[in-house]
Design goal:
3 strands, 3-stranded antiparallel beta sheet, alpha+beta, 5 helices
Length: 141
């Protein structure tokens, strides 16, 4: 990301090149998210009696209940087992997304750029050439 580095150093650089780099990264991110949404992930409750399958987007695709669970669990325990299985599957989706994002943008922490805090007066994050402009826009300067 040659043009991004130029902007980080305070040089004007090639704006068209920067836009191309950003578009390339956006396209790569869209491909990554699409690939994740096509995955199917399974999770089970603590006993293994209920298994849920969800898409990479977290949509429930299927639920398998062990016949013994149908016999041994009352409606409250069954509900808890189903919720546990779906939660486990969705947690795995979240972990896969976090790993993919860490690989995609290793210089960013989950959800925040380095140095970014909730303080509106804080210095802009390192590695983000547009941060000062976005922060100024948010502060309506």
């Amino acid at each position: 990301m040659r043009n991004t580095a130029a902007f980080n150093e305070g040089r004007e650089g090639d704006v068209a090149g920067l836009v191309r780099e950003v578009q390339g990264r956006v396209g790569a991110l869209a491909d990554l998210l699409h690939g994740l949404s096509e995955e199917v992930v399974e999770g089970s409750d603590a006993t293994g009696a209920v298994v849920a399958r969800v898409s990479g987007a977290g949509r429930l695709l299927g639920l398998t209940v062990d016949p013994r669970a149908m016999r041994d669990l009352d409606h409250v325990a069954m509900s808890a087992a189903i919720q546990g299985a779906i939660g486990a599957a969705r947690s795995e989706v979240g972990e896969r997304l976090a790993r993919a994002m860490a690989d995609f943008a290793p210089d960013l922490t989950p959800g925040l750029a380095p140095g970014l805090t909730a303080d509106a007066g804080a210095d802009p994050p390192l590695g983000d050439p547009l941060a000062p402009y976005v922060l100024a826009l948010l502060r309506e300067e």
